[in-house]
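Slide 14.
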Amino acid sequence: MGCYPEAYDWVRTPHIDSLAASGVRFTHSYIGTWCMPSRATMLTGHLQFGVESMRMEGQYPASTYDPEQCPFWPRVFREQGYVTAQIGKWHTGVDNGFGRDWDYQRVWNRPAFPENAGNYFFDQWIQTNGIEKELVKGYATDNYSDWAVEFIEGAHRDKEKPWYLWVCYGAVHGPFTPAERHLETYEGVEVPVPADIYPPRDGKPAYASAWDEWDKGEDGYPVLASDTEQLTVTTNMIHGNRLDQWVRQYHQGVLAIDDGVGRMLEALEVTGQRDNTLIVFTADQGFAWGQHGFRRKLAPYDATIRGPLIFNFPGRIAEGAVCKVPVGGEHLPPTFFESAGLELPWKMYGSSLMPLLKNPDAHWDQPVLMAYTGQRYGSDTDTIPTDPDVLAPAGVPWWISLVDDRYKYIRTLVDGEVEELYDLRKDPAELVNLARNPEHRDRVVVLRARLIRELRAREAGIAENLPAVAKLPE
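Slide 15: predicted structure.
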């Protein structure tokens, strides 16, 4: 996003940037660790270990849940008179919830059709208001924008009712395919090499210290070592295999999203709904390009999971503001309920962000708890698995983290592994693990205890079964 100072100076996302220019941009947003649990948090207000009954089942990415044990809050909006709609990628169970949670849906249901689950950008099987599917041609990002604009303009809804619309773009997921109109953009861009792109990395857990996805090319500049193994995605190089070529391709894929945001904003303006619409732009997680050796998500570092978060609500919240308070996905559903004047239907552990949206400098004393538990959810996460294929299905083992103001504490759930502590102000690249410095011993102990308290406050069974940590240096 061009509105973020961490972005490369050649990035241009004018429509998304306009939301930040007249709204509130959060500097440290942690929605989730990967796509499915992030979306589950968005629908329930709970982190992965609190989403009961959800599980991966059948051919990947098939998944399931019990809507009685795992209700989704759009049902409540619907019951309270809202028209609820979802467009785009659906990745949270074969059951898409139409007629229960949603009045209108036009979705690419990946769990329901594993054989089509790799078609992120073309030839998608789309479900419209039910279970029947149709093959839809065209560039998926643009299709989703078309359907969203139709809904905003009044199609498929009662115009007398308020509405909630969740637009879920599949871009810029691998294979990072841009729209044809953007293939020539960002020519000749420069991408600096991350400081720790090659192993080893002192002070980090064993898996992170040794992570290795990049080689030195003939000119010494990084090239991707090999295709990243994913169950539904085959790497598709367009410009070449160098780091800068991959980064260019990735950022080209963002441009169609920005186009879609611009079209939706225009539709809101033309239909006279702009001043009465809360807009939230975010992403399910981040994605690293060389930082700590990664080319993926999942790991607990900002490069792999931190994403954008922008709120825009003309006349209702601050404008052109930047909030430096770390926030998480748990906070979004309570914010939506407060903005709609509705009571929460069940216990959620995040709080509404409205105080920060009105005053980004307001006092806030809520740490961001994050947890990565692979492909397990709910009480299935109470006991930490010993099978490496379950503990680290994509090479990254289970972990839990706590971001408290400027510090991030990470606990990798491998017996005897080192803890991590990073000063996000002085070391935003998370290169120096302060937990291995005796001067920070007390801070590690305090944050370790606070992480366990936060888990227990959420009734997470995993809190009672955490593995031992490595001895702290004296």
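Speaker note: The domain at 14-181+229-367 is CATH 3.40.720.10 (Alkaline Phosphatase, subunit A).
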